[in-house]
Predict the structure of YncE family protein.
Amino acid sequence: MNKKQLIKALSSYQLWLIAGLIIIILIGVGAAYIMLKQSQSSSIPSSTQTTSSSVSTTTSPQYSFLVFTQKGIAEIINPSSTTPFQGYTHSINISTNVPQQVYWWVEYPFENAAQSRYYLIPVNNGTVYAIDANSLKIVKEFNFGNSIGFIGVAYSPSQQLVAVADGPSGILALINVSSLNVLWEQHFVSPVNGRTYYPCDVRWSPDGNYLIVPMRFNNSVDLIALNGSLIKVLPTAAGSQPYMVSPNMQGTMIAVEYVGNNSVGFYSLPSLKLLGILQMPNGTIPQRGVFTPNGDYYLEAPSNANQVFVISTSTFQIVKTIDLPTFSVKGLADIELMPGGQYAYVVIHGNVQSGGIIALISVSSLTVSSYVPLSTAPAVIIPVQNQVATYLVDNVLLPPVTGLHC
């Protein structure tokens, strides 16, 4: 290689070296820029990240559940905790015919958690137990019937009165919570054949001035005054079997679940004028629903599917379906609003072998927020303030031990 060729080769090599250095420098600058952007994006969350963070930190439920299971265990469950089972004790067997599936409900005003001195707990043989809220001991027993079937209690907006509906006996009663005295008791039966009208449910008007009661086998929905007198009757189609009822928070509308024809009817309050009716899809059977606090939607929980249907109260059509956790025993037992109205909680009773589930639904996003699987079947769910739950855990309940929840 002559001198001229050597110089040319060295020049070519230098050019390649310089080009390589430039490429390396550009790659380094690009990587530094990307790292800087990532650092900025992590330190300054996007709007989506901010929403997610606020939901998990500032809008998580500030309440726990006092759960009475079918096999007699009372336990505290905190749905916001990574270890939801806080403590338990044996209370009273809620189900007298395990494993037959039956239904109970205890309904509190959604504005506040349970604040009464006594929890009134229905049992599926027509019995209601008054349980001291501080000791979880039974202090009184009410006997409204002796047959297996639907029974439940609903607290008035002031939580000073409790209405009891026992379907098999046809009894509707009103109890003073402070004195535990029965103010009145009525027996709704057919004057023709003595068959019970089967009051499946009872709900309070939001102002607390009257009761709303579906009479399943009388095919009617009755408005009943606090003295027990009849205010108004909504006659429904023969065989429609009005099953459950729920008023909206504004006191202007009620929804009625009909199991005779698998539909949900919407009526004005207190005139009971028909506003709209929805036929349930795909053979699903309506059972219990609840209005969102603003009244825009009705969340319907069917008895034979692990879904919640979101019904618009302006069109009376399903606008969304919320799928709940897959569970071997299909069907929902209850749906109610958490205190404050930010969440609805859905109860899947399941059975004592497979357990059940409590699922929280965010009312703002209409999606499942979280859920807690239970090792046995829940019967009655009562939302309590976290400080009440802490007191019970520290002074009344035992710590959770594997295998003792059933």
About this structure: Helices lie at 3-43, 47-57, 386-395. Residues 130 and 140 are 5 Å apart (CA to CA). Residues 63-287+378-396 form a domain with the Methylamine Dehydrogenase; Chain H fold (CATH 2.130.10.10). The two ends are 93 Å apart (CA to CA).
